[in-house]
Amino acid sequence: MNETNINNTQQNLNEKIESLNLEIDKLNNESKNNWELFVRCKAEMENLKKRTDKEILNTSNFALQNILCDFIPLLDSFELCFKKKTEDNLINIDGVILMHKMLLNILDKYNLKKISTEENEKLDISKHEAISVEYKDDIEEDDTIKTVLQNGYILNDRVLRYVKVSVLKRKN
Amino acid sequence: MNETNINNTQQNLNEKIESLNLEIDKLNNESKNNWELFVRCKAEMENLKKRTDKEILNTSNFALQNILCDFIPLLDSFELCFKKKTEDNLINIDGVILMHKMLLNILDKYNLKKISTEENEKLDISKHEAISVEYKDDIEEDDTIKTVLQNGYILNDRVLRYVKVSVLKRKN
């Protein structure tokens, strides 16, 4: 090896080292930036969790607050109704009809609906609950509803109380 | 420089390069791991946001569902009450008192309370709203409550309706 060659080789190696050091600096920065992104994301998530818990509590409180507010006029009507009682402790039905309407309106506002059930309708276990059975000869179809014993109610698509009914079955 | 020295120097440089390459591999892995941590955190956060929106909706629905369920027996009582009316369309007060109690019990369960207000109490604008004023000579203190005109209600610490009152003021 002549001296020029030796120098060239050493220079090449030194340049290589320099370039590798630059690469290391770059990677160090990149790794640090990625770590910082992660740490920031983690902190944001913690904040989000805290906010969420608070928001859930607020949502529940707000829903209740609204519906409870709606019932205050009904309380007033009851008090008014009592003031209008006769000496025999009787109350004219009009006031009670009015209160009933107020109650229905509030519940309707929140989408609570009476499940409409016709007599002679076929029993549908997704909304009816048969609590008594009567056997007869002249029934066309089994499980026909004879009487609604207690009304049922539905909120959006969820049955809150099943309609209690008596059904007819064919005598064998 | 003798040949041994040259070889030693070149060997040192090559070893340095090897060690730098190892360092680069390590940093590449580290940076990649940090990036993956960040990406996973970001995905978790997106999921959390989606779950949160759903949870908030559920919470609100669940709060309403519970309270609406509680009102179903009151609907039954109204219907029962109507069945018991006399021929003169009068209703015995007992049924109405019972319904009033049912309503109060439900509202009490959700912490809605009547704001208790005594006559001769000092007006407190955090819960009272004076809607009429009477001027008199013999008033000890201004803004003494004369009469409660409409009841007020409080839910937890929040006034849902202020107590409407008439107040007394000294005649000058």
Write up this protein:
- Chains A, B: Homodimer.
- Chains A, B: Keywords: Chaperone, Coiled coil, Cytoplasm, Stress response.
- Chains A, B: It is found in: Cytoplasm.
- Chains A, B: This is Protein GrpE.
- Chains A, B: Belongs to the GrpE family.
- The structure is a homodimer of 172-residue chains.
- Chain A has two domains: 1-110; 113-172, Nucleotide Exchange Factor Grpe, Chain A, domain 2 (Roll).
- In chain A, 57% of the residues lie in helices and 22% in strands.
- Chain A contains two helices and seven strands.
- In chain A, α1 runs antiparallel to α2 (93-109).
- The first copy, chain A, is an alpha+beta fold and 172 residues long.
- A three-stranded antiparallel sheet of chain A has the order 2-5-6.
- The relative contact order of chain A is 0.08.
- The first copy, chain A, has helices spanning 3-83, 93-109, and strands spanning 90-92, 112-114, 128-136, 144-150, 153-155, 158-161, 163-170.
- Chains A and B meet through α1, β1, α2 and β6 of A and α1, β1, α2 and β6 of B.
SSE layout:
The structure is a homodimer of 172-residue chains.
Chain A: H1 3-83, E1 90-92, H2 93-109, E2 112-114, E3 128-136, E4 144-150, E5 153-155, E6 158-161, E7 163-170
Parallel strand pairs in A: 3-7
Antiparallel strand pairs in A: 2-5, 4-7, 5-6
Helix pairs in contact in A: 1-2
